[in-house]
Amino acid sequence: MTSHPSASRDIVVGIDPDRDWHLALAWAADEAQRRRLPMRLVLAVPPQHDTQQVDDTPRQTALRQAVSDRLEQACNWVRDRHPEVAVTGDLLSGFPAPVLGAAAREARMIVLGSRHLSRTAEFFSAGSLVVPVTAQARCPVVVVGDAEHISQQPPYVVAGIDGSASATAALTFAFDEADLRGAALRVVCVWQPPLIMLDDEEVALRAQRTLLSEATASLSEKYPDVHVTHEVLTGHPVEELARAAEHALAVVVGRRGRGGYTGMRIGSVVHGLLHRAHCPVITIPTG
Q1: CA pair distance 14, 21, nearest whole angstrom
Q2: Is the CB of residue 145 less than 8 Å from the CB of residue 113?
Q3: Is 52 exposed, middle or buried (0-12, 13-18, 19+ CB in 10 A)?
Q4: Chain centroid to CA 122: how far?
Q5: What are the backbone angles phi and psi of residue 236, rounded to the nearest 5°?
Q6: What SS3 string covers 93-130?
Q7: 165-181 and 201-222 helices cross at what angle (nearest 10)?
Q8: Do the beta carbons of residue 140 and residue 40 sit within 8 Å?
Q9: Which runs of E-coded beta strand occur in the chain?
Q10: Position 218 confidence tier, pLDDT thresholds 50, 70, 90
Q11: What SS3 state is found at 208?
């Protein structure tokens, strides 16, 4: 196994007091234990604006106490699961997305839960965290929608690559994640046939296979214990990656794209996976 030294930066988890946080918190706690990292649980309390009540201080105080209790409950849950993991809780004022975006500046990774809303519902939801935090964070972001497929044997991690710089960073993270877990790694490249074929299909597929071999060569030497397979799939990238990762421990992809909703820098494949994949989706920024 490759050595994984501890780091000072922590794993930040966004806690929603109105939703079940156990799946995301379990994933983050297990990851903190594997990587020997501290955890920081963040719960944001938005400002209250009530024109019907002149002084809402008592209500605001009661709200903060209630969410503070919820945060402490989450911290204790982590301590029970992994007593060796150092965990702290931060109750911060502000809207959740910008608060967590600020927390991501010093984090090793951010972990969020997901309701698997439609793209439109997720984007326009006032409490939405998944899209804005994924788009803006400078560290890896993990979105946990469903329970991990830990019963799948042999366990595997999926990495989706396309030759971009962010995909290279994602592949490096995927190798490390597979090594930490003692899991296999399925490196997937999806070729989507163009409307008008300018080249022979076999030539295009051969180029994809070459891309896979070249991308993984040096990392396979660095992580000799990770069993790697290459797969070139044909079809829509979101559909094929979601299918390939149906029983995976996680799917890892680069966070890329020019634009997206309201100019946020998140690619269409990432957008699709956040709402289609049932395993944790890990997105990696370039560099």
Answers
A1: 9
A2: yes
A3: exposed
A4: 16
A5: -80, 130
A6: ECCHHHHHHHHHHHCCEEEEECCCCCHHHHHHCCCCCH
A7: 50
A8: no
A9: 11-14, 39-45, 87-93, 109-113, 141-144, 156-160, 184-191, 228-234, 250-254, 281-284
A10: very high
A11: helix
C-beta separation of 32 from 82 below 8 A: yes
Q: Which of 277, 238, 7 is nearest to 116 (CA)?
A: 277
Calculate ∠ Cα 241-245-250, nearest 5°. 115
Cβ-contact 140, 109 below 8 angstroms = yes
**Cβ-based burial of 90 (10 A; exposed 0-12, middle 13-18, buried ≥19):** middle
Cα angle 112, 113, 118 (rounded to 5 degrees) comes to 115
State how far the Cα of 114 lies from the Cα of 274, in Å rounded to an integer.
8
Do the beta carbons of residue 71 and residue 64 sit within 8 Å? Answer: no
Largest CA distance in the chain: 72
Q: pLDDT tier at 56 (50, 70, 90 boundaries)?
A: low
Give the position of tokens 């560290």: 139
Which pLDDT belongs to residue 79?
97
Q: What amino acid occupies position 12?
A: V
Q: Is-contact 114 146, C-beta < 8 A? A: no
Structure tokens at 277: 């994949």
How far apart CA 2 and CA 92 sit, in angstroms, is 37
The predicted-structure confidence for 156-187, as pLDDT tens digits, reads as follows: 999 999 888 888 999 999 999 999 999 999 99
